[in-house]
Amino acid sequence: MRILTGLQPSGKLHIGNYFGGMQPAVQLQDQGEAFYFLADYHAMTSMSDAQTLRENIQNLAIDFLACGLDPQKATIFRQSDIPEVNELAWILSTVCPMGLLERCHAYKDKVAKGISANHALFAYPALMAADILLYDANLVPVGKDQKQHLEVTRDLAQKINEKFGEGTLTIPDAQIREDFAVVPGTDGQKMSKSYDNTIPLTGGKKAVRKTIMRVLTDSTPVEDPKPTEGSNVIALYKLFADESAVNQMIAEHEAGGLGYGHFKQQLFDAYWEYFSEVREKREELENNLDYVNSVIATGAERARTESTKVLDRVRKAVGLR
Ligand code: ATP
Ligand code: MG
């Protein structure tokens, strides 16, 4: 089985990325041939500062390793090291109806948030399809926000197979963990690097605590019972705490007498403990950038061996060769 996923270096990694993409990637690296990439072409759809992009790429590579991806088991590479992906994206674009892209939520949501849309943001699902199909991936662990893009990917692969021959492309499946499907941000909406509502995976203690204290709650007075349904604090606490601790927090909400500040402090403590190992590894890696860069270089070689095989097959099938 071949497993593939990517994360964008479009900003600091957040806990939604961790539970939606990174943690399942780490768990799956033992179960097949894993290909995990830093989606730098995709990041360019939402940012245009070269220095920041370079720094983000470096940071994301460090995060991959700090979170437990093992370069002996998984091929870790940078999307732009395999420029062939653009050729496959073009070929897929030729069978991609406009309506399919127009219906994509990620694009519509970003536009609704006032993020100005360029062609790349609109066409992003075609490039994402190429990312996946270029490596004959069978399984793609992602958060729920990517479900629709995975359906587009399957659709495009099927269209190619119908037009140019069965077996030209491998049809992948998404793996979405329902418990972690959409991690809410500090404003209660989907946590997203580009929405300024994130809780970072790692960061200074004071700064992250401050961010967690900002998590949106209602204005129930301290002495009153608090609603538990739809509570962002409880939803986030569930990521880090075991069932009995979560049940206790729920009971304390229902009993009243404790303010949101108290619950947010509990949330922060659980968060801080949960990522202590990642923070430690991160610090080590920051002082060993040569190693980080060598992992990415080796990954590019391994990824290219696969990508050229698949692209060759596609080129032949569609008549380019
Ligand atoms: P951007 O705002 O630039 O799109 P993002 O925060 O959505 O950034 P991506 O790099 O697009 O992050 O996504 C990386 C992975 O993290 C994907 O698998 C995606 O499904 C997952 N993911 C992103 N946000 C969340 C979230 N809030 N909850 C669960 N999974 C998420
Ligand atoms: Mg996204």
From TrEMBL:
Protein name as annotated: Tryptophan--tRNA ligase
Location(s) in or outside the cell: Cytoplasm
Catalytic activity from the UniProt record: tRNA(Trp) + L-tryptophan + ATP = L-tryptophyl-tRNA(Trp) + AMP + diphosphate + H(+)
Cited function: Catalyzes the attachment of tryptophan to tRNA(Trp).
Transmembrane segments: none
HAMAP family found in the cross-reference section: Trp_tRNA_synth_B
Stated family: Belongs to the class-I aminoacyl-tRNA synthetase family.
Organism: Rubritalea spongiae
Keyword ATP-binding: yes
Subunit structure: Homodimer.
Magnesium recorded as keyword: no
Gene Ontology terms for molecular function: tryptophan-tRNA ligase activity
Pfam short name (any one): tRNA-synt_1b
Lineage: Bacteria, Pseudomonadati, Verrucomicrobiota, Verrucomicrobiia, Verrucomicrobiales
UniProt-annotated binding residues for L-tryptophan: D131
Enzyme class at the top of the EC tree: ligase
Motif, 'KMSKS' region: chain positions: 190-194
Binding of ATP, residues: Q8, P9, S10, G16, N17, G143, K144, D145, V183, K190, M191, S192, K193, S194
EC id: 6.1.1.2
Record's keyword terms, sorted: Aminoacyl-tRNA synthetase, ATP-binding, Cytoplasm, Ligase, Nucleotide-binding, Protein biosynthesis
